[in-house]
Inverse folding.
């Protein structure tokens, strides 16, 4: 990998204040993570978020908003894959989460933000930390 790739992740919050967390299998296993994926050429962050959430969970999110950017250096150190992640927030959605990519995720569950199972995928962990601290970027995310 010559340069970092760009990922998008989405914190989806339900009416009880819980967020959607998936247990990953395949790549990024055995980590827990918010839904997300790669930004494709020509996509806006919002379009990518809507697409990725639907592909993974079947949920149709509305009006996702960018709230932070993270530099995922833990993944780089461990896997030699460097990602910059754009994180978005959505609390408007239709549907119930389902496993649409069984080779990538074994379950989706609604969790209290202070009680996320671990271990967490770094991009997800950093996004949740930024959201809780109301910060766009946290310099020392390792």
């Amino acid at each position: 990998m010559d340069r970092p790739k760009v990922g998008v992740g989405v914190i989806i919050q339900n009416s009880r204040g819980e967020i959607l967390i998936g247990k990953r299998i395949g790549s990024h296993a055995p980590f827990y993570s918010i839904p997300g994926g790669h930004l494709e050429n020509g996509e806006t962050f919002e379009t990518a978020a809507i697409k990725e959430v639907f592909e993974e969970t079947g949920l149709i999110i509305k009006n996702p908003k960018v709230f932070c950017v993270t530099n995922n250096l833990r993944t780089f150190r461990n896997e030699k894959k460097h990602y910059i992640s754009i994180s978005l927030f959505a609390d408007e959605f239709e549907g119930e989460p389902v496993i649409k990519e069984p080779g990538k995720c074994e379950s989706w569950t609604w969790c209290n933000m202070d009680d996320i199972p671990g271990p967490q995928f770094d991009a997800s962990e950093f996004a949740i930390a930024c959201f809780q601290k109301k910060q766009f970027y946290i310099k020392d995310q390792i």
